Amino acid sequence: MDRCGILVLLEAKPGKEQEVADLLTSAKQLVLQEPDTLKWFAFQTGPATFGIFDTFADEDGRQAHATGEVAKALFAKAEELFASAPQLHMADLLATK
């Protein structure tokens, strides 16, 4: 059951939009190796605005993901690709379907 999540908001630097999209698309392969990540969505809401939303059954799964390979890849490229640091928001899920 999905009980908690992480919302990450990302703003690409001008000219880096496609690189951010490519990074998020390729990150799926890393997430597939995380058994505690129940759902994972990478999305784009505007020309330079991107995000990730993922869900977990418990805090242990959330923390494993928050310190996992996707997070490492994002923060390794943060200065190069993003206009500002990725914004992480921890969420407690109230209802899901």
UniProtKB/TrEMBL annotation:
Keywords, alphabetical: Monooxygenase, Oxidoreductase
GO molecular function, one term: monooxygenase activity
Alphabetical list of InterPro entries matching this protein: Dimeric_a/b-barrel (IPR011008)
EC number(s) per entry: 1.-.-.-
Keyword Oxidoreductase attached: yes
Class of this enzyme: oxidoreductase
Protein name: Quinol monooxygenase
Biological classification of the source: Bacteria, Pseudomonadati, Acidobacteriota, Terriglobia, Terriglobales
